[in-house]
Amino acid sequence: QQHEAPRRVKRAWVIPPISVSENHKRIPHLLVQIKSDKQQPGGVIYSIKGPGVDEEPLGIFSIDKFSGKVFLNSMLDREENDRYRLRAFALDLGGVTLEDPTDLEIIVVDQNDNRPLFRQDVFTGRVVEGAEPGTCVMTVDATDADDPDTDNAALRYSILEQGAAGMFSINATTGEICTTRPGLDRETMGVYNLTVQAADMSGDGLTTTAMAVIYLEDINDNPPEFTKEEFSMEVEEQAAGVDAGKVFVHDKDLAGSPSWLAKFTILEGDPEGAFAIRTDPHTNDGVLSVVKPLDHEVRDRFELTVSVQNERPLEPSVPASPRALATVRVRVRDVNEAPVFRENPRRISVLEGTPPGTLITTYTASDPDTHQIQTLSYALLYDPADWLRLDPHAGTVRTKRELLHPSAFLQGGWYIALVLARDDAEPPLSATGTLSIEILEVNDHAPQLQPPAGVLCGRPGRGGTLLLGATDDDRPPHGAPFHFQLSPQHPQLARNWSIARFNGEGQPGRGGCCVEGPAHPLCPPAVTHAVLAVLAELPEGPYSLPLLLRDSGTPPREQQQLLNVSVCHCGRDGTCLDGVLAAATAGAGITLGALMIILGSTILLLVLAGLGAARARGRRRALRKGLLQRSQDDMRDNILNYDEQGGGEEDQDAYDINQLRHPELFSSRAKPPLRRDAPLSSGTPLAPRKLPSSPSDIEDFINEGLEAADSDPSVPPYDTALIYDYEGSGSVASPLSSIVSSLTDEDQDYDYLSEWGPRFRRLADLYG
Fold first, then answer.
1. How confident is the model at residue 439 (pLDDT cuts 50, 70, 90)?
2. Which of 523, 577, 676, 707 is deepest in the core (most CB within 10 A)?
3. Residues 753, 768: contact at Cβ < 8 Å?
4. Residue 306 has pLDDT above 50, yes or no
């Protein structure tokens, strides 16, 4: 108003802020009286609204509606609400507003009614031992709920208690704690407990306290030291990987810290490196162990010089000191030691077939216990073939029986035996020695011709070759390469036959064969086969060639053997014309399996033929005599050529039945039909056999066929009765396929099977 112009301003209905102290206890308390300058004759009604009146918190303030006096009805707390803003209203008795609403502000004045509070009850800090003065460790802080703009919240910090040393101080304003003097030593005092205080009113008001715990961190300022200067230990000889004992140390630094861990070193007394020393991580002591077996007979005591120091080096501020040293005396105790085979395994060589009783070696052990008088004995611990005999005192090994090769007990030509050596101490100790015996191969087998027979074409240069091979039971170098040649005792063979190498060191020849010449990588390394060749055209038939086979052993062994060769009729391409002989040109001959298949097929054919004839005989027993002469068609079953696959019975290649009825009409042919099942060199029947006059003579007819086949010396015993593979049309007898279907015929009589001889006895037992 002093700076404004001197004019009157109407200031109706303006209420200045009202201040009231918190925690005011005189209740109710008059705060202010409001009055409107538009007083009506009938009067004015006053009211207030806002927080503390009609809003939360309710009922703190009230007003006399007629006088306009505003009252405080309860104590105030500045920390909850530091001011209240109300709205005052003036109305006439009719409820008409006389004045515009005005603001009524009530300010709560602060009082020092709150103590300072530390943020935590215990503060923790760390500082390394030996820290310089002025090193700050930690900061403590507190808060005060009073008005921060007043002294009620002005805090000051202090240390109430820290012990007699007085090593720390605190900043009164910030609460930072720092060191004040040198000499912090963890080994003397590792933890400091300080009681700190915070006070408001700049240190003169309300107070509170808390704990400040300061830990000293360890540094390596103390070297380790042995608890004594000498240590004594004892260990058994030949014991490796065992602990001999401990050396004890002490370190003042914090246990378990890097400044506490010790490291040991053996400085003197162990030139062989038989000992090692390590640190026990739990006790920090040194553990001396034996890493190499000790021998009492060589050295019975050791004197070791051991040093110790920390893993981490000492702090530079620590005065230097020499490493701690200790003397460790180790005594080696004598014990019984097992015998030792100086040569293990012992390898020797023995010729195959060495006679029993032959001395092959002396295998003995030595006793390391030279200071003790002991006797060694020997025994065979492992002799799988029971080939050896061992002297229990001298250790000499002799053959017990002839050493044979090959044997299941040999491993790559070696025989393995185990020898046990035992001393007579208490308790006795033993050792095992391995005796490896090489059984040297002796050339005691001559090569064998494989296969001993073959078929080839009789024309030179057109399939007239046969591949020959050989085997030898001897192992290298007494086997291949083999030498093949015609027997020198029969020089005339060289006019028609020749033998040449098939493989061996040489150049690849025609057809993959190797011929003589310089070595070639495509050729096998040794001769195992040869080629027999025809030099002149030879007639068909069997030939027996004596061959001389020799191996490469030392000395070589040779043997003369016969090679059975069948010369066949040659085709244009140099192969045999006959299908059976062509199959045999593989050079392997007829195997036992093939022979059994052929014989089984022949016997089955005979059984089927016999069953068909027997059925016809049973149905026509009254017509046994002269049946063939009265019938236009032959009653015998048509034995089909079952080795041909076709579309049915009409698709079979059958023979003319007239050859059976009138064989004399066909005997003038130059050459009878060639048998399919006979080898090339087999002979042909001299003449067709006489047919039986009736089906009852079938047994004699079959026996004649079998006898003709068995009497032929040039071929295996094939059945030649293949003239029965003809089937006529309209035969009285049913086809063979219906034999099974006739098993249920009630009129069938099989008693006649017992009259056919021993070959049909089994059938007679089944159907008679």
1. confident
2. 523
3. yes
4. yes
Tokens matching residue 519: 């070595």
DSSP code of residue 482: P
CA 168 remoteness from chain centre:
67
Mean pLDDT, rounded, of the chain: 77
Indicate whether 432 pLDDT > 90.
yes
Structure tokens at 258: 């890097």
Q: Which residue has the higher pLDDT, 220 or 717?
A: 220
Q: Are strands 514-516 and 377-382 parallel, antiparallel or unpaired?
A: unpaired
To the nearest whole percent, how much of the chain has pLDDT over 90? 27
Torsion of CA 184, 188, 193, 198, to 10 degrees: -30
Buried b (16+ CB within 10 A) or exposed e, 375-397: ebbbebeebeeebbebeeeebbb
- Name the 3-class secondary structure at 630: helix
129-160 per-position pLDDT tens digit: 888 899 999 999 999 998 888 888 999 999 99
- DSSP for 147-204 reads -TTSGGG--EEEEEE--SS--EEE-TTT-EEEE-SS---TTT--EEEEEEEEESGGGT
Please tell me the predicted confidence (pLDDT) of residue 627. Answer: 37
pLDDT at 708 over 90: no
CB of 306 closer than 8 Å to CB of 325: yes
649: which residues sit within 8 A by CB, 6+ positions away? 638, 640, 727, 735
Nearest residue to 627 (alpha-carbon basis) of 579, 696, 565:
696
* Structural domains of the chain sorted by starting position, each given as residue range(s) with its CATH number in brackets: 18-109 (2.60.40.60), 117-217 (2.60.40.60), 225-333 (2.60.40.60), 346-440 (2.60.40.60), 448-502+528-568 (2.60.40.60)
| Identity at 406, one-letter amino acid code | P
Q: Is 744 helix (H, G, I), strand (E, B) or coil?
A: helix
Q: What token pair was written down for 97?
A: 């507003």
pLDDT at 193: 93
| 318 three-state secondary structure | coil
Please give the distance of CA 337 from its chain centroid, rounded to a whole number. Answer: 40
